[in-house]
Write a structure and sequence with these properties.
The complex is a heterodimer. Chain A is mainly β. Chain A is built from two helices and 18 strands. The N terminus of chain A is likely disordered. Chain B is an alpha/beta fold. The two termini of chain B are 24 Å apart. Classes of the chains: A mainly beta, B alpha/beta.
């Protein structure tokens, strides 16, 4: 069994687990800035690095983030990005930045998009380390920046990741589309990479050693050799990274996902679409 | 599958980053937690919980919700189902929180029939069964049958909110750590998502 501990509770949890089997942890007083639109010092610092003094419109008129206030598990918080404009050559969502303010590594994902996605809506799952804002910043092709954010409360415990017993499956990349695909129409698709996405903060209680980080760094999705989107990722993405996205097939072709992880391993998944 | 252990506050990294004074403080806290565990493992009597003991030991621990659902239906109340373990420090913590704030919180529980399922940490997901009428399901299947996302892992303590027909009122988080303050407990009772 491999347990994950984070924060000041790590040591406490380890010691407590000597006396009793593992169970859930997390309590404390309420942080002050908990409104969905509040900012944090972490965000202010990263904002300056990523966007300097560029204005960011904070409304959900262009992009909306849907995240539950409390997710079932902090290690797998469902996140949905809804874009409020269609992807056209004239104006489209060029990049989406997905951030978790209080995570050890704030920047969870940067998605670089093309008009091929048709509609820049995405769904994925993130690790949220503690009470935190989750943010999406949408960068349009005209340079505008738009942000939406949600405050998320998580607590957790420990468990055994399923990938540990199936190392041979790591990297398996699966693409899915509906049974019937209509050409030239917006088509939803899923890409999933079987991968532990180890953060480096997980403890193997048998060896009492922290498991080295090992996570998916990038997923590049193309259709018929045309780029749909590229995702630069971090370990804030949950294990078995999954993205639900859209694309518009203009004829039969191959939907392809090229994956690279932090140990420079490369994996490819393909799906014929007719 | 790995869950986060979290705490609202400034700490967010692994234990190697903890400074020595912090380690000492954490160690002391841990010891205090273990030593200060109350002898009785149960929801506070002030909330008049309906206690459900498991049956079927040692092969399984089956909790029958049939009577609780019937009572909730007849009283026109919702169900606040709490699964605690006798040897779980974090269950004691939540129970102590409820006890300490009973005067303030109890009126807000008026619409809920509180059900106290008394388990132990040795009861894992395979052993734990939930019975309603003549149907008994192991934990994961039960969770899937009600559309609860917590099917992957059994965490102690756990809380479910149901109406009297066993329809979940809200997706609840694993553990109780996100509602161990009065304002957050009230958020839960108001079904704020």
């Amino acid at each position: 069994m491999i347990w994950k501990f984070t924060g000041a509770w790590s040591l406490m949890f380890m010691l407590a687990s000597v006396a009793a089997p593992p169970c859930s942890a997390a309590v404390g007083g309420l942080p002050t800035k908990t409104a969905h639109t509040d900012i944090s010092p972490e965000w202010e610092r990263l904002r300056e690095k990523l966007f300097q003094s560029r204005p960011i419109e904070v409304t959900d008129s262009r992009v909306q983030l849907i995240v539950p206030l409390r997710a079932a598990y902090g290690a797998s918080v469902p996140v949905k990005i809804v874009s409020r404009l269609p992807q056209t050559e004239a104006l489209y969502v060029k990049r989406l930045y997905l951030l978790v303010d209080k995570n050890p590594s704030m920047l969870a994902a940067v998605l670089e998009l093309t008009p091929e996605v048709g509609q820049a809506d995405f769904e994925t799952r993130l690790r949220v380390d503690e009470y935190s804002h989750v943010r999406v910043i949408s960068e349009l092709s005209n340079g505008e920046l738009h942000m939406d954010s949600r405050y998320v409360k998580t607590s957790g415990g420990c468990s055994a990741p399923p990938n540990r017993g199936a190392a041979h499956l790591i990297g398996k990349t699966v693409l899915k589309v509906p049974d019937v695909v209509t050409m030239n129409q917006l088509t939803p698709a899923d890409v999933t990479v079987v991968h532990p996405n180890d953060t480096g903060f997980e403890l193997n209680n048998v060896s009492v050693m922290f498991i080295p980080p090992h996570f998916v760094r990038s997923i590049k999705v193309s259709y018929a050799d045309r780029k749909v989107f590229d995702a630069e990722l971090d370990f804030s993405v949950s294990e078995n990274p999954t993205f639900r996205f859209n694309f518009v097939p203009h004829g039969a072709g191959v939907l392809k996902a090229e994956v690279e992880d932090s140990k420079d391993a490369r994996f490819v998944g393909t799906l014929d679409v007719r | 599958m790995a869950n986060n252990s979290s705490l609202p506050g400034p700490t967010s990294s692994g234990s190697p980053r903890l400074a020595k004074p912090m380690r000492s403080a954490v160690f002391s806290l841990c010891m205090a937690l273990l030593v200060a565990m109350p002898a009785v493992a149960a929801l506070p009597a002030a909330y008049s919980p309906m206690v459900v003991q498991p049956t079927g030991a040692p092969a399984r621990a089956e909790f029958d919700l049939t009577a609780a659902l019937a009572r909730a239906h007849s009283e026109g109340r919702r169900l606040y189902v709490y699964l605690g373990a006798s040897d779980c420090p974090f269950c004691r913590r939540y129970e102590a929180f409820l006890d300490a704030n009973a005067t303030e919180l109890k009126p807000h529980f008026a619409n809920y029939l509180i059900v106290d399922l008394r388990s132990s940490l040795s009861v894992n997901a395979d052993k734990l069964h939930i019975r309603v009428g003549n149907r008994s399901l192991p934990y994961a299947e039960f969770q899937r049958s009600i559309g609860d996302e917590r099917a992957r892992q059994l965490v102690y303590p756990s809380v479910w909110l149901f109406d009297a027909s066993l329809k979940p009122l809200m997706q609840m988080p694993a553990g109780t750590g996100t509602f161990q303050t009065v304002p957050e407990q009230l958020e839960i009772l108001r079904l704020e998502q």
